[in-house]
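DM from R.C. (forwarded with permission)

"hey, sorry to bug you on a friday — could you get me a structure for this? deadline for the figure draft is monday and I only need the backbone to look sensible"
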Amino acid sequence: MIGRRVVLSGGACLAALRPAVAALPVPPSNRLAFSIVRKGGSIGNHVLTFEPAGDRLTVHVAADIAVSLGPIVLFRYRHRATERWEGGQVVSVEAETNDDGTQVKTRMWRDGGTLIVESTGQTRYAAPPNASPATHWNKTMLNGPLINTQDGKLMRPAVTPLGTGRIPGFPHPAAGFALRGDADLDTWYDATPRWVGLRFDGRDGTEIRYELS
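My reply, with the result:
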């Protein structure tokens, strides 16, 4: 999950999947791509690619941000993560982040039925049974605690439905949810439910939006 610090500072194959994986909101194109927008201009991209295979699913996540003042780059962010799912359950996550020069690695893996989490500078811990990686594409993450894939921290934000409406970058009605507390953002899904938008504020109060590209 990209936090407030970041900015400042095909179809036939899917039909053949076993039910547990087919139930996951994998887009027909096996790809989700967002432009990250600040003050009306793009400052980066967030791209997810999906590789379904039988009852297994691999998701690759790539996020890149650069905030500039003229030719001078004031801030850079790079995040790479690989999620592996089996039978509709996450079994491992490996992530590396360069947050403007600060390097962080995070790992999650199943030990029996327990998801173990470790990250740079943080003590290894066993996640609650209903915890999910906070990568947004799987809406069921809203049903329990979230694990920040950047730093491995366990988050328990309050989740409040925002209703259905139109959002920038998406031509159809989308259902919104506000997360407050450990996370402070709004996220949207279509009826599929495919992830279609995100909004949060930078530390200076500047609004940041994810718009499908």
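R.C.: lifesaver. The longest strand covers residues 72-86.
me: no worries. The helical segments are 4-7, 11-15, 19-22.
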